[in-house]
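Translate sequence into structure tokens.
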Amino acid sequence: MIPLLRSAEEAKNIVAAAKFPPQGKRGLGSPFAMERFNPIPTMTEYLQHANQSLLTIVQIETQEALDAVEEIAEVPGIDVLFVGPFDLGNNIGYPILDGVIQPELEQAIDRILAATITAGKKAGFFASNGEQAKKYADKGFHMVNAALDTSLLQSSLERSLAAAHGQEVPKAAGRY
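Result follows.
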């Protein structure tokens, strides 16, 4: 997953670095990557299947990437275009404040989803909570983050401390 992409040319360079020849220019390095597969393949099997087994994900979170999203989506070897709404909102001038996604940011997100689907790729979205995750999954995003680890930890701690003090345990709430 590559953050802060800016152009289709950068996307092509990412594919070249992420994929083995003939699709890219990645070096073999070490055998550790293939140990993540089950069953563990031979070196030959790994090289024969790695390019189509590993996802190359680019995050669309800059104005430049938004301007070129249709071109980026068409780059062979890019598997997922992933929306980072906080950085995207900041970069296009519509930051998420108090959890509110402005209409202009929503339009940008919709444009990214449409470009991704048109190119036959998968779309991802970084949601902050379960309700937001459902909204974007219902819109057609294929890969959706459903919570922030820091929010989950904070909520869990609040609930545990309340229970330890004999207080009413607050309901878990999604936060931005």
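Note: The longest strand covers residues 122-126.
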